[in-house]
Amino acid sequence: MKKRTIRLSAVYQALLLLFMYLPICVVVVYSFNVSRNTTVWTGWTLDWYRKLAGNRSLLEALKNSLILASLSSGAAGIIGTLGAVGMARIEWKTKGAIEYISTIPIMIPEIILGMVFMAFFAMLSLPFGMVTLVLGHTTFCVPYVFMMVKSGLVGIDKSLGEAAKDLGASEIRAFFDITLPLILPAVISGMLLAFAMSLDDVVISIFVTGARTNTLPIRIYTQLKSGVTPEINALCTVMLAVTFLLVGLSRFLGNKISR
Amino acid sequence: MKKGRKSLALLLAAALVSGCLSGCGNNAGEGGQDNAPASDGTTAASASEKKENAGELNIYTWAEYVPQDVIDQFEKETGIRVNYTNFEANEEMLAKLETSKGGEYDIIIASDYIIKIAADEGLVKEIDKEKVPNYSNIDPIFQNFFYDPDNSLTVPYGPGIPLLVYDPSAVTCEITGYGSLWDPSLKDSLALMDSERVVMGMALKTMGESFNTEDLDVIQAAGDKLMELAPNVRVLSQNQTQDFLLSGEVSAAFLFTSQVVLALNQNPELKVVYPEEGLGFGVDAAFIPSQAPNSDNAHAFLNFILDGEVGANVSQQTYYLCPNKASYEFLPEEFQKSLVISTDDVPNGEFIQDVSPEATALHEELWTKFKAALD
Amino acid sequence: MLSRQASQEAAHTVNAAGRKRNRWWMTVMPLYLFTIFFVALPIVYLFVLSFLTRAQTWGVVNEFTLDNYLKILKPVYLNTFKESFQMAVLTTLGTLFIGYPFGYLMAKLPKKTKSLMMLCVVIPFWTSALMRMYGWIILFRSNGLLDKVLMGIGLTDSPLKLLYSYPAVLVGMVYSLLPFMILSVYSSTDKMDWSLVEAARDLGATRWTAFFTVTIKMTLPGILSGIILVFIPSMGLFFIADILGGGKVMLVGNLIQNQLQSGRDWPFAAALSVVLMVFTSMMIWIYRKATGVKDLEGLL
Questions:
Q1: Which of A203, B18, B53, C92 is most buried, judged by most C-beta within 10 A?
Q2: Which domain does B180 fall in, by range?
Q3: Tell me, what's the ipTM?
Q4: What share of chain A in percent tops pLDDT 90?
Q5: What pTM, to 2 d.p., does this model score?
Q6: What is the CATH number of the domain that holds B364?
Q7: Contact C143 B247 (CB under 8 A)
Q8: Residue B251, Cβ neighbours under 10 Å: how many?
Q9: Three-state SS at B82
Q10: Does residue A131 surpass a pLDDT of 60?
Q11: Which of residues 170-199 of A touch B (CB under 8 A)?
């Protein structure tokens, strides 16, 4: 009985992962397609990788996107985690309102948010570029981290922290030693999602970026005139490969450290 | 604690790889120049310092619309560093241009109707033709348009005429114009542009009206007529519409010039139709914003793309009509100004222009209704 | 008089002591300041914008009007809201039924596999969503991979026209929002006290009763945040409808985008956004009331 359940659950998980990875496999395969057309298969080639390597502005856009996603998911990680932990321990009347307002950026379509941010940043006379991009992206990254951590905190016994404090640990120590490890999966999930959202945002970016900073999604979504070229497939493939490399490396390092 | 360590390791690895990546980016970025890859922020600065007199040029248009090799060649010849950023819709461009009060960008390539609005708002700078000796290379057929009647503001970049294309093996009725698309045999087999003015324009043309009529009753009638087209529409799309035709998803499509060329390249069996009710016409043109920070470089760029050889290179990669008469000798035999259109047709084409707010609002409403009827 | 003053003083000292001990207000400051400055203020601007008038050709005029809101009452626009709501509900249910078991099973995996699984769930979402949608198109289009497989094994004999329809959009939406549900459920299941489930089992509950009475209840915070994280954005998403729906499915997001771009009617787009915001908030409020999640006070 038990064995069968385990096998069933494994099958379910495998199927769902297949569902999630299927379209990506197609993207990878089509990066080797001869045709410039991303949807008609004509044969194998490595040309798009060669083209990609010589495309300075595309690689620069990728670099900008990685910096942007790291900065905004990092900022959101700090603001969101501290906020959620603090909110659970204070009794302010404005608490609910602030929580509600902080989720508005994922509630309304990005395009109107982008317009509003553009007008707002111009009013503050902020120079359009990486700074405005990070500010804009952080607004929609915060709710992901906040919500994740918030639901992660529910059910964690507050007395645990109290007990640690009674044993002489400072509040900060108690937070880092007791609370943070418990909510870490939630913090990491939230930040991973925020990173993904930031890495793929196009609409807000178009409105809040300046003349010197292009991001990868802007590059991809605005190929209206040429049609998306398989260079983008090649780039996605490289990114995937690097990500998997990164995961492998971190597990390797992680094993080393814990040993 | 273990978990903390693991995430630490993940962060370390992330920093390592992204460091490598940005290193690569920089290397590629400096392509050939001799300064060593510095840290992220300083590379751009040091590059522009090195050739201080050459400076920068900020181009703003759709991605890949100015081919990468054209940009590379310009940078190499002039020492000017090009920043190429993109927008998706003309309106986004104008919103940004308004916000920066005509500054920030040096060269913008956008569509005719939006240039008209930008010019009316005083956001377009007059071109100093002294600095653009190649200006006389422009084929006069592509001048004197509504958005620039004095030919002082713009350089035509990508003119085009949208056409009907169909797969003769999949179509049983005869297709001669927009009106043929209403034929019941084309049920669920049309790909149209996801743009209300273009699709409404087709309906207006079948009624013998102008694309730009502001008569609300006429627009309403066109909207009603459009509702009858709903069963035939399989896809509305702006991007890569030709793909639907190539993969057999649809049997007829209304395509932009560049898409017509791409479709024919893949499948020469496809048939092209010049709609009998009248052609549409559109021009993407380059202009310099009123407060462009690097106006001299912008003029240099306009002069550069108007060079015969460069112009020919651009047209062959964008697949639009070639508006540069000095380029014709550099174009391969089969290109002849355009791969699909004869320039004789240009004067017959009608632009889609901005209409009154009331007419625009009605277009929007009818379009929403049409889309709701599609599914 | 005296006693009142004394009690006031006492209250004051208690308060001061309380404040001294409770220094958590510092940790919420970044959230407060950031939210007020970079979210609340822009939203106020949006609200003001929704009462202004569209200019003749470009921009807005500072003339107060209610027309933008009245316009939404036209049946054609109300219908768009209805369709979006339907789509959002179906998407939320879809992600819940598919994602909950996955998130739950993920938390039961051995520790090492768990973190790997978490990454495996998120990694697909680090590649461009547009490219993934093109991937779906290649799979699902007529005579595409799926058709060939199905016809190859003889299940169908003619190409299915799967793409560019309502179900295709739904699949795309569920696919795109699935990780929010999975990770929400996972992060609340992960720290669940399994001894309670065991206790229930010891008391004679079957596997399933234990699951429905104990596990579901304990993972409710995760379900709730998952539902919120899926429902909220699904009301406003538009590019999935454009690509997988072949531009034929019009959701509120598409409508707003159209008004901003070809319609150039910013005030109307702002009004639509305000209504969307209010509507979404109301739905979540009703949902909370209906399920009566007590210890989640404040979670929206």
A1: C92
A2: 163-278+349-374
A3: 0.86
A4: 44
A5: 0.87
A6: 3.40.190.10
A7: yes
A8: 22
A9: strand
A10: yes
A11: 180-181, 184-185, 188
| Pairwise pLDDT comparison (C21 vs B287), residue with the higher score | B287
Total domains in the fold of chain C:
2
Does residue C42 carry a pLDDT above 50? yes
Q: Which of C130, C131, C149, C129 is nearest to C140 (CA)?
A: C149
Q: Give the residue on C whose Cα is nearest the Cα of A232.
A: C131
A220: exposed, middle or buried (Cβ count in 10 Å: 0-12, 13-18, 19+):
buried
pLDDT of residue C21: 57
From the list B9, B87, B247, which residue is nearest A40 (CB)?
B247
pLDDT given at position A174: 77
Whether residue C61 lies inside any domain: the answer is: no
Kindly determine whether residue A112 and residue C224, on different chains, have CB atoms separated by under 8 Å: no
* Residues 60-99 (A) with a CB less than 8 A from some CB of B: 60, 62-63, 66-67, 70
> Of B183 and C192, which is predicted with more confidence?
B183
Q: Which residues pair with B284 in a beta bridge?
A: B111, B158
Same domain, B292 and B153: yes
Tell me whether residue C59 is in a domain.
no
Q: Is there a contact between C141 and B249 if contact means CB atoms under 8 Å apart?
A: yes
Q: How many domains, in total, are found in chain B? A: 2
CB within 8 Å: B68 and A56:
yes
Residues of A in contact with C128 (CB under 8 A): 200, 216-217, 220, 232, 236
Cα A86 to chain centroid, rounded:
23
Q: Using 50, 70 and 90 to split pLDDT, how confident is the model at B47?
A: very low
pLDDT at C284: 81
CA dist C117 → A51, C104, C219 (Å): 34, 12, 19
Is A122 in CB contact (< 8 Å) with chain B? yes
Residue A158 phi, psi (nearest 5):
-60, -30
**pLDDT, tens digit (0-9, with 9 covering 90-100), for B190-236:** 999 999 999 999 999 999 999 999 999 999 999 999 999 999 999 99
- B191 and B260 both lie in a single domain: yes
Residues of chain C found within 8 Å of residue B234, distances taken between Cβ atoms:
161, 164, 246
Judge whether A125 is closer than 8 Å to chain B, CB to CB. no
- B200 and B287 share a domain? no
C147 close to B (CB below 8 A)? no
- The band of B15, judged by pLDDT with boundaries at 50, 70 and 90, is low
Put simply, the answer to whether A223 touches B16 (Cβ < 8 Å) is: no
* Spatial distance between the Cα atoms of A114 and B162, rounded to a whole number of angstroms: 31
Q: Does B353 touch chain C (CB under 8 A)?
A: no
**Considering CB atoms only, which of C245, C255, C261 is closest to B89?**
C261
Q: Is B48 on the interface with A (CB under 8 A)?
A: no
Closest CA to A147 of A183, A181, A195: A183
Q: How far apart are CA A68 and CA A106, in angstroms?
A: 18
Do residues A197 and B68 touch, judged by C-beta distance below 8 A? no
Does B199 fall in a domain? yes
Q: By CB neighbour count within 10 A (0-12 exposed, 13-18 middle, 19+ buried), where does A29 fall?
A: middle
**Among A67-71, A89-93, B135-139, B369-373, the least confident range:** A89-93
Kindly determine whether residue B63 and residue A226, on different chains, have CB atoms separated by under 8 Å. yes
Residue with tokens 């802007």: A218
pLDDT in tens, B250-296: 999 999 998 999 899 888 999 999 999 999 999 999 999 999 999 99
Of C76, C142, C144, the CB nearest to B365: C76
Which residue type occupies C270? Answer: A
A53-231 CATH choice from 1.10.3720.10, 3.40.228.10, 3.90.226.10, 3.40.50.10860? 1.10.3720.10
Q: Which residues of B touch A35 (CB under 8 A)?
A: 266
Neighbours of chain B (3+ CB pairs under 8 A): A, C
C255 neighbourhood in chain B, CB within 8 Å:
368
Q: Give the per-residue pLDDT at B252.
A: 96
- Token couple for B183: 């034929």
